[in-house]
Design goal:
Its EC number is 2.5.1.90. The protein has one domain: Orthogonal Bundle (Farnesyl Diphosphate Synthase). 74% of the residues lie in helices and 1% in strands. Strands 1-2 form a two-stranded antiparallel sheet. Strand 1 and strand 2 form a beta hairpin. It is globular.
């Protein structure tokens, strides 16, 4: 069995319905705050926003706030917008670093507009995010999201260090994805509790939920790079392989590699000397050693951790929706 290939879209629809009114206001705020007299800024940012995406991270902020009883005010809207701007900014920067040409099945912003505008508009969105944080005026929230921004950058730098290093251990890989992906999931959830004025225990439970969910999400993403197809994934298949990224499927395949197989990984990922058919051979080696199924199992384990973290909260439709979204993240196939 390879990576999960059937997305539980119903779970996403249910969560979306529960936060629909709030999400409409978030989308309106996104459009408002992207505006600038420098025409290229809203044009480029709008290209990425219009490309779609599930808006999962801001939905998690809204859902967490509602789970914690937040009723009045606009702070959860500002924070959800802030989370989406941080995410969008990192996407712009990541695509430049990775030299990606596709994003969500469409041409990436850097492919259309160039690297320099993409980086600078990413900086603009980070700045807008911090303006929104300040408007909320909640010091713990400011600390959570500003720390998340720094940790995301650290995770990306750490990934650069591990790229092409076939001796990378699973622990190092987890450090990378904890920073570059899971930290924003965790922060997005925790600020919902903070803005609702809930206890440290509840805020930390939502942080733990988001962290485990984010780990599962990224592990599945790395699995799909070797098992999905381009139309379903929305990016070029095998990008991680071509860039020499050491992800969990590679690490698990390497753990069982014989001398010839290790030489293959060293040539293709360590030295980036790749020939036609090498991606297919890499996928065959993963299949031979059960690396993709083992990767999927790791994602399921983190999914269970995410559900466990929610047990501090009483049953409710929102509680169930957050539990069910775990299954969506693990079984998705875009």
């Amino acid at each position: 069995m390879a990576c999960p290939q059937t997305a539980d879209t119903n779970a996403l629809d249910v969560l979306g319905d529960l936060v629909a009114d709030d999400m409409k206001r978030v989308n309106e705020t996104i459009v408002q705050r992207m505006q600038s007299p420098v025409a290229l800024i809203p044009q480029l940012a709008g290209h990425l926003v219009a490309a779609g995406g599930k808006r999962l991270r801001p939905m998690l902020t809204l859902a967490s706030a509602r789970l914690c009883g937040y009723e009045d005010g606009e702070d959860h809207i500002r924070l959800a917008t802030c989370v989406e701007f941080i995410h969008t900014a990192t996407l712009l920067h990541d695509d430049v670093v990775d030299e990606s040409v596709l994003r969500r099945g469409q041409a990436s912003a850097n492919a259309l507009f160039g690297n320099k505008p993409s980086v600078l508009v990413g900086d603009f969105l980070f700045s807008r995010a911090f303006e929104l944080m300040v408007e909320v005026g909640n010091l713990p929230v400011l600390g959570i999201l500003s720390r998340a921004s720094a940790v995301i950058a650290e995770g990306e730098v750490q990934q650069l260090i591990t790229t092409n290093d076939i001796d990378t251990r699973e622990e190092s890989y987890l450090e990378v994805i904890s920073g570059k992906t899971a930290e924003l999931f965790a922060a997005a959830c925790k600020v919902g509790a903070e803005v609702a004025g809930r206890t440290h225990a509840e805020a930390n439970a939502l942080y733990a939920y988001g962290m485990a969910l984010g780990l599962a999400f990224q592990i599945v993403d790395d699995c799909l790079d070797y098992s999905a197809n381009q139309e379903r994934l929305g990016k070029t298949i095998g990008d991680d392989f071509r860039e020499g990224k050491i992800t969990l499927p590679v690490i698990l395949a390497l753990q069982q590699a014989n001398r010839d197989e290790r030489a293959f990984w060293s040539r293709t990922l360590g030295e980036l000397q790749q020939n036609e058919g090498d991606l297919e051979q890499a996928m065959a080696l993963m299949k031979r050693h059960g690396a993709l199924e083992a990767t999927a199992q790791r994602a399921r384990e983190y999914g269970e951790q995410a559900k466990e973290a929610l047990k501090i909260f009483p049953p409710s439709p929102m509680h169930q929706a957050l539990r069910d979204i775990v299954g969506f993240c693990i079984s998705r196939a875009w």
